[in-house]
Every structure is written in structure tokens, then in C-alpha cells.
């Protein structure tokens, strides 16, 4: 019998979880206006709201916290971080920022202007936000298979080269400041981009002399998928794969709250001296001096170590296997989930789970609320509420899919926590025909309404 994989670490410090009862949670979620973002974390048993900044640091990272050099300029902690980023990415220039969107703000301030087009593979919402804020357009060139929930394509984050070629060929080149590839792609949940696809995108960009940047929040998880799914890379180390991925581009923005395994942080790294120089000015204006960019010295030290740990195969295998363990258990229980599973989250398909609740009554939100009440598990609705209203008609913008995302924090929960989540969902699934309530909106913000929306329970017909 094959030995199971194990977490390549043991536990030295624990944080207690406050338990609660179904009756308490019914009351709390009502007080929170049926919005899971409004719950204080003490009222949550297992928090799968996001994998961003919620991971557990290692003892070596905590040791770095003690050694942080808080000098304003040229601190040792900065040098440590710069050195590992250069080594991992091969890019010669490095600028720290306080998180991923700050890196986007600095880089895009240098490169994006009104009327520009920025093609990519389903841009992350802050990326799109920073493009649209500058009155430019994010053009999605993701392969069609990404939007087909029944497709088991191994690299659903890939760019459709033909779509990209068409965008480039049908627009003036000076309107396309760069192409951005998100690794892994968030569409349909942390889907990877293959090395083959990165090479093809890079070749096309070089042909037209367009720079290629990476939105790298989950670059290490992407490298893991390349290693296990692309034969050519089976014997390569994660660090070798990472180096090759970045060798095809001109720079990257990073949210270190993901694959940096820190609670806060980010950076930019670049190949071009001129772009670097432009970025330094914006960094000083928005973030801080170029050797800290909004991060404390100790945080830069912890990030340096985190990047090294996140690019080790044993860590990535247990990380992704844990996510997939939850996905596989749900499949065994017959609970409808999106496949193939991505790197950082499992997506429950509310359309197939509770079709008896109308879309207009926010079925994915109803399911997320039920999961909270039943077991104290906090996921997040990725459905009609999050999709907002049409800016012109103000009607609900019904998305293709109604999902509940269960994002798994790094190194934070154990397999028995995953089992708890799976069984909670199974129990709800087994009684899904008894679902009694949908929801209606009582108050909402004009945009990004999901964070602050207030809901009321309504009986379903
Ligand atoms: C989280 C994330 C960002 C933004 O980073 P923050 O650190 O949250 O500001 C950008 N792109 C992707 C793909 C992300 O996952």
C-alpha cells in the first residue's frame, strides 16, 4: 500500500477555535444582516473566506521577525528579500510594496494610459480595477474551456493564442502597453497556466515587441501544476520551473499574502532599467522609500523566508493535496463541485446544489449562510451578489455560475478540519430539498456591494 502524503511540518504553536451552537449562529448571522463579511472571526469555527494573508508562518519566518532590520534605507531585511526574489525570478530589479494591488498601482501608473488595452487571462478584480481606473480596458483572452464546468482541461488558466493574436493584430501597437498573465488564474478557481502556453504567449509578445508581465500571486502553486501535469517538467525542481516561467517575461507584480506565506506584503520585480526607474518614483509617492515600500524590515525578512519555503515541492504537494482532499471527499458525497480542482480553493456549485432557490433570491448566498449556520464554516458567495448590477440598467447581472468558494489558508488547518467541512456540506446536501429560504437585498452599495450588503430572509415558493 502506498504511504499517504503528510504535512512536511509539525505544530509548535496553536490558536484556539471558539465553538458555538446552531442557535447562536442563527442569531449572529441575522445580526450580521446575512452578510458573512460582517461576522467577527470569533463567531467562525473554520474560516474559508480567503487564502489571502491567512496562512501560518514557520518558526524560521518568526525567527526572521526577530532579526528584522528597521533601517529606513538599505536594511539587511530588504537585502535578504531582494536577493531571494532575484534568485527565484531572475529579474534584476526589485521594489517592495505593501500588498499586491499596491504593486499594480505602482507598475500601472508607469505603464498604462487612457485608451490602452491590456490583454490577459481573466484579470483579477484589483488588476482590472487598476486598469479601468486609468480608463483603459482589460481584454480577457482566456481559453473557452475555462468557462465550461464539465471540461477537465489540465490548464484552464491558459490564454487562447488566437484570441490574443486577434486583439494585437486589430489594434495599434502603442495602445497595448503589455500583456498580463495571471498565475494561477482565478477564473474557475486557481486554474494553472502551462509552460507551453507561457512560451507561446511570450513568443507572440516578442514578435510584436509587447512586454509580458505576470500577476504572480500564486506562482508557486502554478509551478507545482506544471511539474505534475506537463511531462517535460516531471524531474525539474519547483525553483527551476519558477525560474523558467519568469524567464519568458519582463516583470511581475506579487501579492505576498498568497504564495509568500505572509500576512501582508507585496512586490514588483522587473527586467527593464527604465521601467524600474519610473516605478521608483511612484513607489516613493504611494508606498514608501524603495528599500521598504510600505513593509517593515521584519516583514520583509519573513517574506524572504516564506518565498523560499513556498517554492519547495513537499510544501506545495501537501498544500494542494489538502485542497484536493476536500474536493475529493465532496465528490464522493455527491456534492456538486467545480472540476478540475484548482490550487487554493474548492468551489461548490450552488446551481446544481439548490436549484429550488431562485437565482433572484441569491441561491449561492443562501447556501453559504446555511453552511455557516450548520457548522460555523465561513465561505464566500461568488455569484449574483458579487457580480453587482449592470451600471446602466441597474438590473442584477446574473453570472454564468453561482458558486460558494471555500478558500483554504496555507498550513492553517488539518485534514480533520477538511473532513468536518466535507461532512457539513454532505449533511446540507442530503436535506437540500427542504431549503426554505432565499434572500432579498435591503441595502447595498453602488459597487462592490458584496462586502457591505444587507439582506433579509424570505420564504421560497
Ligand atoms: C490577491 C491578488 C491580487 C491583489 O493582491 P492584494 O495583496 O490583495 O492587494 C492581485 N492578483 C491576484 C491574482 C490576487 O490573487
By CATH reckoning, the class of the largest domain would read Alpha Beta
Task: Give the percentage of residues in beta strands.
Answer: 5-15%
How many strands appear in the DSSP assignment? 14
CATH architecture of the largest domain: 3-Layer(aba) Sandwich
| CA-based gyration radius | 22 Å
Tell me what you see in this structure:
With 461 residues, the chain is of the alpha/beta class. It folds into two domains: 22-51 and 313-457, Aspartate Aminotransferase, domain 1 (Alpha-Beta Complex); 59-310, Aspartate Aminotransferase, domain 2 (3-Layer(aba) Sandwich), CATH 3.40.640.10. Helix content is 39%, strand content 13%. It has helices at 22-31, 59-66, 76-89, 100-111, 125-133, 161-169, 195-208, 219-229, 238-247, 273-286, 297-310, 313-332, 350-353, 363-375, 384-387, 415-430, and strands spanning 46-47, 93-97, 117-120, 137-140, 179-182, 212-215, 251-255, 266-270, 345-349, 377-378, 380-382, 403-407, 437-443, 454-459. A five-stranded mixed beta sheet has the order 2-8-7-6-5, sandwiched between helices. α7 links the parallel β5 and β6. The longest helix has 20 residues, at 313-332. It is globular. The termini are far apart. Pyridoxal-5'-phosphate binds at residues 52, 99-101, 124, 126-127, 182, 186, 215, 217, 255, 257-258, 266. Residues 52, 99-101, 124, 126-127, 182, 186, 215, 217, 255, 257-258, 266 line the site of pyridoxal-5'-phosphate.
Amino acid at each position: 500500500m502506498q504511504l499517504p502524503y503528510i504535512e512536511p511540518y509539525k505544530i509548535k504553536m496553536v490558536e484556539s477555535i471558539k465553538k458555538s451552537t446552531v442557535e447562536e449562529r442563527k442569531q449572529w448571522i441575522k445580526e450580521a444582516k446575512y452578510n458573512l463579511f460582517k461576522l467577527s472571526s470569533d463567531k467562525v469555527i473554520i474560516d474559508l473566506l480567503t487564502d489571502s494573508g491567512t496562512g501560518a508562518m514557520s518558526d524560521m519566518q518568526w525567527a526572521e521577525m526577530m532579526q528584522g532590520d528597521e533601517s529606513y534605507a538599505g536594511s539587511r531585511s530588504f537585502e535578504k528579500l531582494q536577493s531571494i526574489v532575484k534568485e527565484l525570478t531572475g529579474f534584476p530589479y526589485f521594489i517592495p510594496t505593501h500588498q499586491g494591488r499596491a504593486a499594480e498601482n505602482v507598475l500601472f501608473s508607469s505603464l498604462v494610459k487612457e485608451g490602452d488595452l491590456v490583454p490577459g487571462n481573466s484579470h483579477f478584480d484589483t488588476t482590472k480595477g487598476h486598469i479601468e481606473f486609468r480608463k483603459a480596458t482589460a481584454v480577457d483572452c482566456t481559453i473557452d474551456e475555462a468557462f465550461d464546468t464539465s471540461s477537465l482541461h489540465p490548464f484552464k488558466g491558459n490564454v487562447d493564442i488566437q484570441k490574443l493574436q486577434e486583439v494585437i493584430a486589430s489594434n495599434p501597437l502603442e495602445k497595448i502597453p503589455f500583456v498580463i498573465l495571471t498565475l494561477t488564474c482565478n477564473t474557475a478557481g486557481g486554474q494553472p497556466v502551462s509552460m507551453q502556453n507561457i512560451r507561446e504567449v511570450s513568443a507572440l509578445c516578442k514578435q510584436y515587441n509587447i512586454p509580458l508581465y505576470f500577476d504572480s500571486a500564486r506562482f508557486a502553486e502554478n509551478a507545482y501544476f506544471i511539474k505534475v501535469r506537463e511531462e517535460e517538467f516531471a524531474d525539474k525542481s519547483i525553483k527551476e520551473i519558477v525560474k523558467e516561467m519568469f524567464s519568458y517575461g519582463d516583470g511581475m507584480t506579487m501579492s505576498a499574502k498568497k504564495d509568500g506565506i505572509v500576512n501582508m506584503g507585496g512586490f514588483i520585480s522587473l527586467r527593464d532599467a527604465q521601467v524600474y526607474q519610473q516605478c521608483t518614483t511612484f513607489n516613493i509617492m504611494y508606498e514608501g522609500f524603495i528599500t521598504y515600500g510600505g513593509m517593515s524590515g521584519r516583514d520583509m525578512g519573513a517574506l524572504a523566508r516564506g518565498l523560499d519555503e513556498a517554492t519547495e515541492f513537499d510544501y506545495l504537494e501537501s498544500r494542494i493535496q489538502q485542497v484536493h482532499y476536500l474536493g475529493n471527499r465532496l465528490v464522493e458525497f455527491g456534492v456538486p463541485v467545480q472540476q478540475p480542482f484548482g490550487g487554493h480553493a474548492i468551489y461548490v456549485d450552488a446551481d446544481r446544489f439548490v436549484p429550488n432557490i431562485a437565482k433572484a433570491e441569491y441561491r449561492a448566498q443562501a447556501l453559504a449562510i446555511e453552511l455557516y449556520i450548520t457548522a460555523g464554516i465561513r465561505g464566500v458567495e461568488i455569484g449574483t451578489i458579487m457580480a453587482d448590477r449592470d451600471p446602466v440598467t441597474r438590473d442584477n447581472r446574473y453570472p454564468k455560475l453561482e458558486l460558494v468558494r471555500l478558500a483554504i489558508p496555507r498550513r492553517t488547518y488539518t485534514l480533520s478540519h477538511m473532513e468536518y467541512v466535507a461532512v457539513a456540506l454532505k449533511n446540507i446536501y442530503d436535506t437540500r430539498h427542504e431549503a426554505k429560504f432565499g434572500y432579498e437585498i435591503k441595502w447595498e452599495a453602488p459597487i462592490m456591494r458584496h462586502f457591505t450588503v444587507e439582506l433579509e430572509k424570505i420564504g421560497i415558493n
